[in-house]
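Hi R.,

Here are the chain sequences for the assembly we discussed:
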Amino acid sequence: MINIIFCKNPVSLRDTFFSGQSFRWKKHSDNDSVFVSVMHDTPVVFMQRDSGILRIDSPRETIDGTGVTEWVKNYLSLDIDNSMLFDHDFRNRYPEIMQLVDDFEGLKLLRQDPFETAVTFMCAQGIGMPLIRRQVALLCERFGRPFIVETEGMRHVLYSFPSPDRLAGVPAEALRLCTNNNCRRAVNIRRMAGAVADGKLDFRRLAASGMQIELIREELCRFDGIGPKIADCIALFGLGRFDAFPIDTHVRQYLAGWFGLHRAEMTLTEKNYLRLQGEVRSILKPELAGYAGHLLFHCWRRKVKGLLTA
DNA sequence: TGCCAGGTGTACT
DNA sequence: AGTACACATGGC
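And here is the predicted structure of the full complex:
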């Protein structure tokens, strides 16, 4: 089953997946334009003909109950045009930043699965991207379902992301082998997964339109291992809340370095974190602050820090 | 060697 | 309300 999508605006799979969105896609051989994964128990191959044409190869006609084409459009947030992220004011005030950001016209922020997003960012506390990527890969290999993905004469063995009830049933001692040997993290993930499996944590309800971002954060932060930053990451990447603005160590750096926000250099207590978000809302469009922030995040890492490891 | 990496919870003043 | 520290390990 092959679908061709003509994109109105440029899309760069390489930049998008490099930026850590998602941790679940693998490069096909050394080809930068072909990526493979298993999404919602469906093997999927992305091929990029050019920045405006995507070919999607999937053995099934639907992913997650929706048509493949519709799913991809939503997943890649093709409804968001990167040129609308920064207003006239911002462009005038920070022309040198815009010059850097314009190179990432095709970088997309993915609308990912909320449970997968939650687990992934619970694995992302104070450690580097390679270690996060390894944890996610181990979780999938040990507790996901295997799939063979064949494309262009190559075979990949890929794994689905484990379901909530599967992870909830894994003893913490076994789970910690996948969570960087961190026992507390394993326990926290297990508990959160159990709540999702029991319906006590309902991501669909949190994703409903009209939910206040403060309420989403409050519900997520009830779980050990989820603080304001991770809650905002779940909202941004997993619930499609592009107004959510997670502040991590990289974001702090560019808020200080590019925008001169002194508060970004202070210790981030919860109060300080919220205040800093308030200051950001006066610089970036509030309804797309998180999306714009993701571009700045990627840009800062790539162009200023020179980081090449995703 | 020492510091930094997509933080959070707890135990102190 | 603010600060210090443990958690764990790899990369540079």
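Chain A has a mean pLDDT of 96. The longest strand of chain A covers residues 31-39.

Let me know if anything looks off.

Best,
T.
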